[in-house]
Amino acid sequence: MAQEAARVARRVNDLIESGGHHFDLSGCCLTAFPTGLILATSSVSDKISSISLANNELKGMAKKFFTTYKNIEELDLQGNKLEKLPVEVGLLPKLKTINLSKNKFEVFPEELTKIQSMESINLESNQIKDIPMDNLNNMPNLSRVDVKLNPVNKESLKNCAVKFELVL
Fold first, then answer.
1. Distance CA 132, CA 123 (A)
2. Could you tell me the pTM of the whole model?
3. CA 111/CA 49 separation, integer angstroms
4. Each residue of 87-116: pLDDT tens digit?
5. Number of structural domains, the chain?
6. What b/e sequence results for 74-107 when a residue is b if at least 16 CB atoms lie within 10 Å of its CB, and e otherwise?
7. Which of 49, 68, 118, 132 has the greatest count of CB atoms below 10 A from its CB?
8. Which class for 117: exposed (0-12), middle (13-18), buried (19 or more C-beta within 10 A)?
């Protein structure tokens, strides 16, 4: 545990020293995003455009995370234990890419369909059965949705018009 805490501290220091564009907390054994990091990174939070929290043990994301790092364009949450996202994720006006692969989603996180800047959604290796095609087709910049290795009801997609690459 002390090793992981030291790793997080080093990465926060690196972020602040570099002026902060990419915040990498992947593989730090986090079960939640430490709220103390919001205060620790406040001097660069507006400059952060990419955050990786991949391969941790996250079961949820705090609303404050999405209201603090509002300028992120890329968010990598793959390899966690997430089942849902808070509605605040829909408030990220610049988010283009989100990786939610290898989590525990059973329902497509429709909050993502509210983000007009979204270009790519990766939900590979979850437990999603239904895809909200109408909502996804209304997203002007969406170019790719990856739902490989999900128990998607492919019959329900047969007569759907698709304006983006749908990876099944």
1. 13
2. 0.95
3. 20
4. 999 999 999 999 999 999 999 999 999 999
5. 1
6. bbbbbbbebebbbebbbebeebbbbbbbbbebee
7. 118
8. middle
CA–CA separation, 24 and 32 (whole Å): 15
Range of the domain at 20: 2-167
pLDDT band at 1 (very low <50, low <70, confident <90, very high): low
The per-residue pLDDT for range 31-76, each reduced to its tens digit, is: 999 989 999 999 999 999 999 999 999 999 999 999 999 999 999 9
The residue behind tokens 């007009």 is: 116
CATH number, domain with residue 31: 3.80.10.10
What angle (nearest 5°) sits at the alpha carbon of residue 81, between those of residues 73 and 50? 15
Please give the mean pLDDT across all residues of the chain: 95
In the chain, pLDDT over 90 holds for what percent of residues?
87
As given in the structure block, the two tokens for residue 149 are 């290795």
* Both tokens assigned to 145: 């949705």
The DSSP result for 103-132, as a single string, is S--SS--GGGGG-TT--EEE--SS------
